From TrEMBL:
Protein name: Aminopeptidase
Biological process terms in GO annotation: peptide catabolic process
Example of a GO MF term: metalloaminopeptidase activity
Alphabetized UniProt keyword annotations: Aminopeptidase, Hydrolase, Protease, Signal
Superkingdom of source: Bacteria
The species this protein was found in: Massilia cellulosiltytica
Renumbered residue ranges of the record's region Disordered: 736-755
Length: 786
């Protein structure tokens, strides 16, 4: 043991106490976080010359059993191994297994908190009837795939192993690079009631007319993705992390009750078999129409609701180069369509909805589909598919290639039957259509790994949704997007970074949707500017359409195409839970001394005269007799002159000083500039550009924009020099609330009072009066209805 003298030990402790904290370099590169570039994924963020991806083509024959609410089918998958690896087995996604009674999703479910469960403060916090019904139903519903057979192309059984929501198929012969293999799967499952069990698909029952509406997705065993970053992406499906899939061609035949209308991914191949002559004529008319054409009318739908046609019809669809296939079926469907053609886009926009969706759906759905494609094309690439469909059913909002499921409907008054809808419902419909149709771009075409990174599709898509909503109408009531809308979340506790695996995200709506959207708006409007951002974002979309990007590919492309080092931005916004909180701590004003004694002594006198008059002098004034006033003979030179009197010596020194100065130095003395040292503190930890609104004495205002690199040497506190032509009377950091600053109360000099309201409530007396409550009249059903 080494011993130090007491004095030396104390000195060591003292030195340790005042040692500087480690320098937190907010602008260090992301080298330790991003993967090393390769010939597959380059340092620029573009696909490399060695980029590859797998392919899976599907032929599916399926039957909807409406009475049993079940589906059975057989499929043939042709899997193309475009990788440089030899594969001895394949992995298949069995997403319906999430509905098995012992699924991981069910067994790992938890309640948000004990307090929320037992001590709710009101209906908003409390446990709901439908939530408890869902919990109980999950324990009895007979869900999940029944795999009847898995066979090779010759009809021979293949060995499989099912691991919850994944199935491994062992190949008799290893699949070499460049080779392909075909195999078939026979399967069936029971369809869940979506409003009871939730999920991204299911059926909705209409008690009034005894009909069902089916929205069918994740409905067939699908190839798991195999790619250079993860190998097989076979992370279990727990419900939040969506899907990672391969592109391919689909040939799908769907056998449904003969009076059903079917909407699906792809183009209908046999309209003559399933549509009436009038419907086929309307469909052809819709392709060149200037407004939506009703293909299957409400009158036709209501007639179908009242009867049950015998037999079945088979609808056949084909889709090329898509990563998934979904469909919807019901005799309740009204169907409208309108063509949209511009540049390389030639699409038939369509909507399918029950009468319960009108008048809202007929007015807005297809219009919103077309608007989405027109706007998203501007920022990414031309929509490449031939159809785009919006379906109204039980699923609130979910996307698949060429088709999406959307929920909002008008409300029907139970007594009068009157249909009305709120502003929230109207704009909720438009927004969800924009969002879900927009998912065709991200991730249905820019094919990110949803099982790993929710923000790569939800965040980017929500950002483009925000831009499309802006283009719908002025003052569109947006629920997310503006940076100011995220501040409560940004300063909250128990956050996780955006770069958190999809299944581990807390506060999904904020983390995966709202925060990435706000971040990209800050990047576009405040950091890069629209021109640089839009060019870089479009470059990312163009580079990675029909390919599978990772976060690093997005980060690197945005930097590469904008010509801007953004590692500080990605680190702060995406890898930490820091927030923006910049405080304006203090301001000191300086003006340049002229050296002219006439000016300088007058300035010093003005400063002295501006000081508060002492309380003693205030009380003496007019009350205390002065001797020199009654005896003026006592006054001399110093009663007429003080320290501010300019002397000839002062003038001589000034003239001598000027003689030593060059002309440019003399001019500096006459500039009359006002210099301010402004102290800023970064209280939130997230570095940000400074947006300074400066107000001058004349009332003129202007904004100075200072890049975030102003924090590069001292990320916690900085002092900035601001030069003005006239006195500054006010300064505000982030005047437009564009940086998501979580405390605007410390953003101004001088400080501003923050307005608020105090609500007063009447005191309740005799609240718990058992006698009064006991004697209260018992209401009848008629009383309650009134």
């Amino acid at each position: 043991m080494i011993r130090f003298p007491i004095g030396l030990a104390a000195l060591c402790l003292s030195m340790a106490a005042i040692a500087a904290e480690p320098f937190d370099d907010k602008f260090r590169q992301l080298d330790e976080l991003l993967p090393t570039p390769t010939t597959i994924r380059t340092a620029s963020g573009a696909p490399g010359h060695a980029y590859w991806q797998q392919r899976a083509d599907y032929t599916i024959r399926a039957t909807l059993d409406e009475s049993r609410r079940a589906i059975s089918g057989t499929e043939t998958i042709t899997y193309h191994n475009n990788s440089p690896d030899t594969l001895s087995y394949l992995w298949i996604q069995l997403d319906q297994n999430i509905y098995k009674r012992d699924s991981d999703a069910r067994m790992t479910a938890t309640v948000p908190s004990r307090d929320a469960w037992a001590k709710a403060r009101g209906p908003e916090d409390g446990y709901k009837f439908d939530a408890l019904r869902s919990v109980l139903e999950k324990s009895t519903f007979d869900g999940g795939f029944r795999i009847a057979a898995v066979k090779d192309a010759g009809g021979r059984p293949l060995h499989v192993a099912i691991n919850r929501t994944m199935m491994r198929i062992d190949l008799p012969q290893p699949l070499k690079p460049g080779a392909k293999v075909a195999f078939s799967i026979d399967w069936s499952y029971n369809i869940n009631e979506q409003k009871v069990l939730g999920g991204r698909s299911g059926y909705e029952k209409f008690d009034e007319d005894k009909n069902d509406l089916f929205e069918i997705a994740q409905w067939f065993p699908r190839m798991a993705a195999y790619y250079d970053v993860t190998g097989w992406q076979h992370k279990q499906f727990l419900g939040t992390g969506e899907f990672t899939l391969e592109f391919g061609d689909y040939d799908v035949q769907l056998t449904v009750p003969a009076d059903h209308i079917v909407a699906a991914t792809g183009e209908l191949q046999n309209p003559g078999d399933v549509l009436t002559a009038a419907q086929r004529q309307r469909l052809e008319q819709a392709r060149t129409a200037s407004k939506p054409v009703i293909i299957a009318t409400q009158a036709e739908a209501e007639a179908r609701e009242k009867t049950r046609a015998g037999g079945t019809k088979t609808w056949r669809f084909r889709a090329k180069n898509v990563r998934d296939f979904a469909w919807a079926s019901s005799r309740k469907f009204i169907w409208d369509a309108q063509g949209f053609k511009k540049d390389a886009t030639n699409v038939l926009a369509q909507s399918f909805y029950p009468k319960e969706g009108n008048p809202l759906w007929e007015k807005y759905s297809t219009a919103a589909v077309i608007h989405t494609i027109a706007e998203y094309n501007k920022y990414s690439f031309d929509y490449p598919y031939p159809v785009a469909i919006s379906v109204n059913g039980p699923v609130g909002g979910m996307e698949y290639p060429m088709i999406c499921f959307n929920g909002p409907r008008p409300t029907k008054d139970k007594k009068t039957g009157e249909l009305t809808y709120s502003s929230r419902t109207k704009y909720g419909l438009i927004s969800v259509v924009i969002h879900e149709v927009g998912h065709n771009y991200f991730p249905m075409i820019v094919n990110s790994d949803e099982r790993q990174w929710t923000w790569m599709d939800e965040g980017l898509n929500s950002f483009l949704q925000y831009l499309a909503e802006q283009a719908w109408e002025e003052h569109y009531p947006q629920s997310r997007g503006e940076p100011r809308a995220i501040v409560d979340y940004m300063r909250s506790t128990n956050q996780v970074p955006i770069m958190t695996n999809s299944e581990s995200i807390a506060a999904l709506g904020y983390n995966a949707y709202a925060k990435p959207t706000a971040a990209l708006i800050v990047l576009r409007e405040t950091v890069l500017g629209r021109e640089l951002f839009d060019f870089a974002f479009r470059e990312y979309a163009q580079r990675w359409k029909f390919k599978r990007p990772t976060p690093s590919d997005f980060f690197r492309t945005m930097e590469d195409a904008s010509g801007t080092d953004l590692d500080w931005f990605w680190r702060g916004w995406f890898y930490t839970t820091d927030h923006v909180d910049v405080s304006v701590d203090g301001i000191s004003e300086y003006t340049v001394g002229t050296k002219d004694p006439e000016i300088e002594k007058a300035w010093k006198k003005a400063q002295r005269d501006a000081e508060p008059i002492s309380i003693t002098d205030q009380r003496n004034k007019g009350t205390l007799p002065r001797r020199v006033d009654s005896h003026p003979e006592l006054k001399d030179f110093y009663n007429e002159h003080d320290a501010f009197t300019v002397t000839n010596r002062d003038r001589n020194k000034y003239n001598e000083a000027l003689g030593d100065l060059e002309d440019w130095e003399k001019n500096l003395l006459k500039e009359g500039k006002h210099l301010y040292l402004v102290d800023f503190s970064n209280l939130g930890g997230l570095v940000t550009p400074l947006v300074l609104e400066i107000t001058l004495q004349s009332g003129k205002k202007y904004v100075e924009r200072i890049p975030a690199e102003v924090w590069r040497y001292t990320p916690r506190k900085i002092t900035k020099l601001i030069v003005t032509d006239e006195p500054m009377v006010a300064l505000t950091q982030d005047p437009n609330w564009e940086t998501a600053d979580t405390d605007t109360g410390n953003n101004s000099w001088p400080r501003k009072a923050m307005p608020s309201r105090l609500e007063l409530y009447k005191t309740e007396h005799d609240k718990d009066n058992l006698m009064r409550d006991f004697n209260e009249k018992l209401k009848t059903k008629d009383d309650k209805a009134e």
